[in-house]
Design goal:
By secondary structure, this protein is α+β, with helices and mostly antiparallel strands. The protein has one domain (7-150): Thiol Ester Dehydrase, Chain A, CATH 3.10.129. Helices cover 20% and strands 36% of the residues. It contains two helices and six strands; from the N terminus they run βαββββαβ. It has helices at 33-52, 135-144; strands at 12-17, 63-74, 83-93, 97-106, 112-124, 149-150.
């Protein structure tokens, strides 16, 4: 995990608005909600990568990925109706897995309010056995990201 995270290190982002059902009695966004934001960001990142790089082998047929590790560090609180920018990138790629990093920025003041990430494993949906990531995935992420660590 990086100690210092800059939003300028990220090429992908989505926007989320803190909703009524996501806050407690003090109007503070519940900690578990950030994992939903991260999931939304990972899905959009993957969809955009697949569309923009025309990835044929990735997430087709029995190609699937599952989350095996998630983490979040909370730096400041988000409140009802805050617009949050969820910045996302792939930080590393191994043979069958890759790691996402996220930075959550409050749009109104640019404050970094949370950072986190997770690791997903590429599997065969039917057999649940790990699958090597296709070369086209390595190529697409390497082209899209400023820096990605390849750990084959």
């Amino acid at each position: 995990m990086k100690l210092k995270m800059e939003v300028s290190d990220f090429n992908h982002q989505i926007t989320e608005t803190v909703k009524f059902h996501e806050v407690d009695l003090l109007g503070v966004c519940n900690n578990a909600v950030y994992f939903n934001y991260f999931e939304d960001a990972r899905i959009r990142y993957t969809q955009d990568l697949k569309k923009n790089y025309k990835l044929k082998e990735f997430l087709e047929g029995d190609s699937f990925f599952i989350m095996v590790h998630n983490y979040c560090d909370y730096l400041k609180s988000a409140h009802l109706d805050d617009e949050l920018i969820i910045h996302t990138k792939v930080g590393f790629i191994k043979n069958t897995s890759f790691g996402f990093e996220h930075a959550v920025e409050r749009k109104s003041d640019g404050a970094l309010i949370a950072k986190g990430g997770g690791v997903v494993v590429h599997i065969n949906k039917t057999t649940q056995i790990k699958l090597p990531l296709p070369q086209e995935f390595y190529d697409a992420v390497s082209d899209f990201e400023n820096i990605v660590e390849i750990l084959k």
